Amino acid sequence: MPKENKKHLEAFFKSLKRNESGLIFNPWFDSDTKNDMNKNAPKKRLANLKYYLAERTNAEYLLLAEALGYQGGHFTGIAMTSERIILGKMTHKGICPDHVCNTLLSRTSNPKKYKDGFNEPTATIVWGKLVSEGLNPRNYVFWNAFPWHPFKNADKILSNRTPTTSELKEGEIVLRLLLKSFNFKKIIALGNKAESSLNKISIEAEKVRHPAMGGAELFRKQFLQVINK
Fewer Cβ in 10 A, N or C end of the chain? Predict the structure, then answer.
């Protein structure tokens, strides 16, 4: 990685730390006392993200979604990536842990909650499409316009909500640093929120349907069209 990119990547990781505030979970620095395996969970999630990005220094594509979800990055630290994927529990769908990372990544949720870890439908759809098309997963970085996990209320951390306009504004700082850390040739926005966040910082992107809420088939079709352009 060029020296300038490395400098921006170091700043990127520092930007992930934020002051604690209501209804936002920071997987890399906050503890989920009700659902984490142990107190080292935040450090493990940060390590997972660092290992993941370290294997993608030459990635050409950025896939940007809206916000981190409780079934995915909340426990893995990696956008659109579930524990079941990194634990090898999705091999029946052709998705293996080494598609994500050659380094063994850590689960952080308490196994008493779900023995095989949390499962995120969006993660399965996106990773499944990469694998089924025979695409090199090291050529793709997944991220979110709002990088942290917004949840509905204090008693329901295992929930998702749409980030507010001001929250998405905060996410722009992190997004800018990520874009400076890599030399992406194409940026793909999954849905309107991601596209809007990119537009606000004057970054051109191709928009595809977000796979959630019945959008899986359209996502698969549009994603293939974009990468084949």
Answer: C
